[in-house]
């Protein structure tokens, strides 16, 4: 990484993606979101089925 | 307020948005006619506390859950209020920022965010698009980090983890696996690195030069880099490893890896390596010192365990100056400049030090305006290492002459019982968890410091407000302007009470930073604030004002502002992690 051109995957805050772009660093952005958590009732139903 | 104002709140239940998206929407909303203030935040305890302080002490607010979004608006009239509540809701749902939600796709396809070629909805798609990626910068909630790290290690990608709140057992597991696979893990809680002159995370635009830094102290890394930049000394690589790394539980795994990597760099690239950390655990300190001193490293080193080391004098005199020990960030920069050469050291002494007699004259004008009962320093820091360094300096100077409190106290300081309320001399790190849970870092979101500034100004015992301003990539686009009106208001509040309030500041920035260093300095000067070239000197100046000059400045300088290691040898506190 220190010897080669920096190529960055930015996962999360897009201020950091923009800052890297501003410095001409090659960067891609992952617009991360947490996976949806099931509510308790759905979990119970699923646990009975599976 | 001299005009009528209406408060209302809307709760969006189970609606996750990251704190920066919410901050952006809040800022958009504040620009609308008829809107006096707006805060759109997750319903965490910290955010509810802040909303209460903004006047939203409402049952709806207090009942909101961590997973709810709270839309809180203060408007001039009912029409503006209703209009803006629905606009805020629409912005939250992405209806007015372009639809970023959809794009769909099946397994094996690259799922881009609608209309944007280099934005993706998942990690796999991003890595498929950039298969030669060599660094991942990760800033997601800590509980989700571990699985992603393992996946990236398997893909051969180094990582900088800005994320906080990663369980320490996860951190150890990640770092051990990374080391086995030759992968560098910077963090968790690593806000800052510089690689080949490119800033990663919160970082300043510095010149490229013959210095490498390994730091377990984010703003500490930034401070040493900018101070060297002011002395015309550049940085090749600066690697932030996160505050947990030097603790016994982690064993300094990535500090040692980083030092090894930098020591192997060609001498043409790196001549001097600086190691910056709060005092590590005794076992980690021994590993670092043994490695640097005894294991055949070739380069010159400066080791700074801020405030001193557990063993008081860590470096054998037989090293003939190859390794210098420092005890403040300022003395680290001076020592690194000294290791580079005499010319650079002379420049550093000129740029980073205000001679004691001159400083005394400058601050005397401040303390002469104070009332008898104005005794206390209140430091409101966005940079955690600054809060730490200032405690080191103030506990050393003030000693038995007063109590020093902090929400993150070092040995010799006391814990603030309520982090939202200062006592005596208080050094507040606004980046600590109690202020940031569900919020953007105070280097980005100035709200919490704005509120606190006004509260401190109303206390008749306060003599000095000590503030840091961190410029650079990732930080607020205008950190000076963001709290300028509150600084003016704070002075007016004091004036109404028949008092003068001294404002002492340090700007952590360079001429190349996007916010503009010179303009920032000028705007602060225009407010009448004192601007110090280093945070250590800002702490010393504040103490000199509060103690009305009753300080032996020569002695203080020789302890905290030397570049030859003599300050560290005069003894510091023992604050092992």
Q: Care to give the gist of this entry?
A:
The complex is a heterodimer of chains A (50) and B (577). By secondary structure, chain A is of the alpha+beta class.
Structure description:
The complex is a heterodimer of chains A (50) and B (577). Chain A is an alpha+beta fold and 50 residues long. Chain A has 2 helices and 2 strands. In chain A, strand 1 (7-12), helix 1 and strand 2 (26-30) form a beta-alpha-beta unit. The longest helix of chain A is centred in the C-terminal third of the chain and has 10 residues, at 40-49. Chain A is elongated. Chain B has 3 domains: 6-92, Alpha-Beta Plaits, CATH 3.30.70; 190-352, Rossmann fold (3-Layer(aba) Sandwich), CATH 3.40.50.261; 356-560, Succinyl-CoA synthetase domains (Rossmann fold), CATH 3.40.50. Chain B is 39% helix and 18% strand. In chain B, the strands form 4 sheets. In chain B, strands 9-8-11-10-12-13-14 form a 7-stranded mixed beta sheet, with helices on both faces. In chain B, strands 17-16-18-15-19-20-21 form a 7-stranded parallel beta sheet, sandwiched between helices. A 3-stranded antiparallel beta sheet of chain B has the order 1-3-2. The A-B interface holds A 1-2, 4, 6-16, 19-20, 22-23, 25-34 and B 16, 18, 20, 100, 113, 116, 118-123, 125-127, 129-130, 132-141, 144, 148, 157-158, 162-163, 184, 195-196, 198-201, 203, 205, 237, 261, 265, 444, 473-474, 514.
| Proportion of beta-strand residues of chain A | 15-25%
User: In the CATH scheme, what's the topology name of the largest domain in chain B?
Assistant: Rossmann fold
Task: Report the portion of residues of chain B in β strands.
Answer: 15-25%
Total count of strands of chain A: 2
CATH architecture of the largest domain in chain B: 3-Layer(aba) Sandwich
* Outline type of chain A: elongated
Helical amount among residues of chain B, as a percent range? Answer: 25-40%
The first-level CATH class of the largest domain in chain B is given as Alpha Beta
